Amino acid sequence: MDEDSFTPDTMSVADRLAAEALIVDVDGFEGPLDLLLTLSRTQKVDLRKISILQLAQQYLAFVEKAKALRLELAADYLVMAAWLAYLKSRLLLPPDPSEEGPSAEDLAAHLAFQLERLQAMRDVAARLMGRDRLGQNFFARGEVESVARVKRITWDASLLDLMQGYARIRTRDEFRPFVMDRESVYTMEQALETMRGMIGFAGSWTDLTRYLPPGWDSDPKRRRSATAATFAATLQLVKEGRLELRQSETFAPIELRRREEDES
Amino acid sequence: MSDDLQEPDGAEENSTESLFEAPPMGEQERMVEAMLFAASEPVSLRDMAARMPHGCDAAEAVAHLRKRYEGRGVRVVRVGDAWAIRTAPDLGFLMQNEVTETRKLSRAAIETLAIIAYHQPVTRAEIEEIRGVSVSRGTIDQLLDLEWIRLGRRKMTPGRPVTFVVTPSFLDHFGLESSRDLPGLKELRAAGLLENRPPPGSPLAAEDADQAEGEAPGQSELFED
Amino acid sequence: MSDDLQEPDGAEENSTESLFEAPPMGEQERMVEAMLFAASEPVSLRDMAARMPHGCDAAEAVAHLRKRYEGRGVRVVRVGDAWAIRTAPDLGFLMQNEVTETRKLSRAAIETLAIIAYHQPVTRAEIEEIRGVSVSRGTIDQLLDLEWIRLGRRKMTPGRPVTFVVTPSFLDHFGLESSRDLPGLKELRAAGLLENRPPPGSPLAAEDADQAEGEAPGQSELFED
């Protein structure tokens, strides 16, 4: 290696030691690219203008020395060596126009790019680590106040939920095995309305069935509904203190009349 | 910024007998500020002084800092014989983080709400009749809490039962201008939400649909008062 | 009554049409001051706004606060989408007892971190390409443990490899406002050193080269949603 004579005074003792250490301490390198990058430093030129040919020679010389010292070289160092040997031969020979694939110059340029990129990453890594850092140079709040978490629940439903919910009910109605026949249902509300209009005239005991609405006493289904509703309505009116009820025995007719006490 | 701070007594020492020039008071105040901020517990004047350059007056720096923080979101407070930075008491409410969790309404609540919306004003008994199951107090309460329904006028029927109607915030939430805008049964059917096939043995289906739609226009008057 | 109820869905309510009067900006500034002082981790504007009264403008309050603390012992700093208060770096010497011991990072870890920061989102294979050596599991694990990196989205390339990106903790630790502020980023980009340039002669070379150019401005488009 003649770079010592090239720039004899710039090589410090540490550099010399490093250069010697190169030869034995393969483990100190982070792979062949790192080794190439280290070797390239001895060229003392911009990485863009580096001589790949010279670098390949240095690398191959390094591998030879390592072999001579019977150092175990990791496979990727040898792969790189083989590739560089190939590249070197391509660079030395005039280009063969019949050959396919990338030119030796392209390959060399890419290697130079890789070295430059790795060097750039190292430089910025150093800049990054050299920054003021949290917990070293600047500090966060020491006495942290805890922030209590208060959970609040909001309920949500969409219009579609609403529509689906309603549709579900309607669908259920329509397919209910027992379809409620509203034509034959006499509601308590209806019965009450009728009763309210009539109790004024119920001065004496009268059979409950007399109060069934007209037209509801023939069809058994309708009759049952009307009787039940009317009976419920009378109970309501009894509760309100407006009617009295009586039944002489079980299953006997139920009779009702107006309650008189209030008026006396 | 710091020129309005007049120096209290006891400040003369730093000018007299320090070997090195002490940093200006503004710098000392910065130092105290940083130390109090970063410390995990209150810091005594002695501690501060020990960490500050020679000739500094921690007590005075703290006094300046305390003044600077008057009326701010945090304050410099004395804790025993040490100092600390603490949140201003009136801002304690910020130290809680409200997490809102959105949950879907239960099926019972949605159905009840739908019935109220489509049939209002409607009593609880009527809701139960339509749903075919009883409606729990909790479901109604939840809808009342949400302010999606409110009590309407009492019905002039026995027991004068209360009715329920939907509220403007219901309309707002569901993006409706009025409850008239609720899709009718025909539209539900068109949207595929209802079976197209008329249910067997139910001549009422068509009638109901008309009825539901016919009902709607009158509902808006319920929003009076 | 109901026309003011139509707030647009979404969120920007606070600036335009709030129902309540927002507190004066001075008060809002106090609030963000208290919140930022109380937390050791950066607090996002969204978090602050959620804890402040309706109608507050956290971003503006923070901007005022930041100005107020210029040149003081502590500073208001931006960390990604969030804000934090940190002591001024020149006063680090006062906080020697607060220094947190950190495990010394290996050279491999430091380089890997830098590669992730400058090339993110980046796959493991790409890191290995750049370093020319395989990346050990331990190196990645160490960076994940420190919460300086996390998994990014999978790349839409064969095998859909995972990618790595740096985290807000990384930004906070190194005092960076965003990844755009990484030292030397512009120069590296200008020099073409952040391009993903495949080796010549590799089957994908031509194809990738085109892609690489399209990639540079917005790497994110390589990723699904």
Structure in words:
The complex is a heterotrimer, with one copy of chain A (264 residues) and two copies of chain B (225 residues). Chain A is mostly helical. Chain A has helices at residues 3-6, 13-24, 32-41, 52-68, 75-92, 104-129, 159-175, 188-198, 220-239; strands spanning 148-156, 206-207, 243-247, 254-258. In chain A, a hairpin with a 6-residue loop joins β3 (243-247) and β4 (254-258). Chain A is rod-shaped, with a radius of gyration of 53 Å. Chain B contains ten helices and seven strands. With 225 residues, chain B is an alpha+beta fold. Chain B folds into two domains: 11-95, Arc Repressor Mutant, subunit A (Orthogonal Bundle); 107-221, Orthogonal Bundle (Arc Repressor Mutant, subunit A), CATH 1.10.10.10. In chain B, α5 crosses α7 (137-145). In chain B, strands 1-3-2 form a three-stranded antiparallel β-sheet. In chain B, strands 5-7-6 form a three-stranded antiparallel β-sheet. The interface between A and B is large, with 43 and 55 residues.
Oligomer: heterotrimer
For the largest beta sheet of chain A, what order do the strands appear in spatially? 2-4-3
Shape verdict of chain A: rod-shaped
SSE pattern of chain A? HHHHHHEHHEHEE
How far apart lie the N and C ends of chain A? 136 Å
CATH fold name of the largest domain in chain B, please?
Arc Repressor Mutant, subunit A
Secondary structure class of chain B reads alpha+beta
In short:
In chain A, 51% of the residues lie in helices and 8% in strands. With 264 residues, chain A is mainly alpha-helical.
Q: Mind sketching the topology for me?
A:
The complex is a heterotrimer, with 1 copy of chain A (264 residues) and 2 copies of chain B (225 residues).
Chain A: H1 3-6, H2 13-24, H3 32-41, H4 52-68, H5 75-92, H6 104-129, E1 148-156, H7 159-175, H8 188-198, E2 206-207, H9 220-239, E3 243-247, E4 254-258
Antiparallel strand pairs in A: 2-4, 3-4
Chain B: H1 12-16, H2 25-38, E1 43-44, H3 45-51, H4 58-68, E2 74-79, E3 82-87, E4 96-104, H5 107-119, E5 122-123, H6 124-131, H7 137-145, E6 149-151, E7 163-166, H8 168-173, H9 185-190, H10 204-215
Antiparallel strand pairs in B: 1-3, 2-3, 5-7, 6-7
Helix pairs in contact in B: 2-4, 5-7
